[in-house]
Amino acid sequence: MMEKIKKNLGLSLFVLNLLLFLVFLFLNDPFHLLSKTYEKAPKLLDLRLSEIQKIRITFPDKSLEYQVEILNAPTKFKNLEEYIQNLSGRVIINQQEYELDKENLKSFIETLQDLKRYYEIPDTQENRSMAGINEKSAKIIIEYKNQKQDELKIGYVSIRNNSSYVQLNKENKIYQVEYNLKIKSGYEDVDYFRNHSIFNIDKNKVQKIALSYKNNRYVYAKAAKDWQLIEPKPAKLQNTAMEGIVEEIVNFKATKFYNTQKPQDKDWEALNLTIELDISQDLEATKKEIFMILGRKSYVKYLVLYKDNYYEVSAYRIEDLLEPDKLIEKK
Question: Region 39-54: what's the mean pLDDT?
Fold first, then answer.
């Protein structure tokens, strides 16, 4: 064998380089040939969105269960975006009920819609063991109005190539699909399907902001489209800056939920800032929303208390309201 290689050294080097090149193509797919083939593969799931009643997700190793319940969904819609916007639902996390996070539900459904019947192996005991498919596997169960359901078992996942082994409805095949399905299903974030928005406020209807901080009071009010400082001294404000701050407040999203338990983390620096918003309502009296910012850490993380619940949020401009001189319109 070695003699043949020595006699045909040039040919041997060519074959070796060709093999290395093919391995490179397979691992890196620089021309997207494999990904295009994957895109053309048939879908793994036939999701009938208008018929979905419930999605159950279980992670036995964490004793964790989600139940996403679709209470009302449109029967006609142009795309997933329109479907998500017009549905109402809730999530039950280990028997606790919460408002549903529609954006994360949308991301989850998009992932399910993208799963393909591309790479498959037979359902044998050896392959089940290799793929991590067993009775203790994580499951996604989609229940439809006609009492039919799809059950997707999730086996081992690979962070390296962002893929998962799955089995659908006890088929005699196991598929390797794109996406880390556990992460996309809330494995690492128990509050993944819980609504992360703290307020439900239309930015354009915020008419006044009043702050109380260390015996000082700051009041900002909107007249027509212009923001003005009322206290501690009247002044015209930079509208762009004020609109940016208002947008930040109404779009507060929880990065961590503490529920009714105040965190005892010593990293929180006390702030104790009370903020009151006046919200205009059609044909009704002005509505008030009051919340507190109790502490801060790492410059952009704030501890918010709203309706007896504690949240961690990220904000970048909220403390500018304590320095109105920064916001006054320059002459």
Answer: 90
